[in-house]
Specification:
Distance between the termini: 46 Å
Structural class: mainly alpha
Largest sheet: none
Order of helices and strands: HHH
Helix content: 55-70%
Number of strands: 0
Mean pLDDT: 90
Shape: elongated
């Protein structure tokens, strides 16, 4: 079993956690862990968006990026082309 720790949250937050855990048939810890994972992912993609905006503001850098992107586009040979596919 993983080590545990106690954290303090206000009563309203605890009530929300209890409600969500009951609804999802899981633990409060799992709800908090999932929320943190989502928060981290959101922060990561927010940074990616910010970096792309910055990159786009420099036409030379953006053109280099797009040229590299186009050079590798479609190069993934994962075998999926052999599977039946319907649009």
């Amino acid at each position: 079993m993983a080590a545990t720790a106690t954290i303090r949250v206000d009563e309203k937050t605890r009530e929300k956690l209890v409600e969500l855990a009951a609804k999802e048939h899981t633990t409060l810890g799992a709800i908090v862990r999932d929320a943190l994972d989502r928060y981290e992912r959101d922060q990561f993609f927010a940074q990616v968006r910010e970096d792309l905006i910055c990159l786009r503001s420099n036409p030379d850098e953006w053109n280099d990026y797009m040229a590299e992107f186009k050079s590798i586009d479609g190069t993934l040979a994962d075998g999926l082309e052999d599977l039946p596919w319907e649009p």
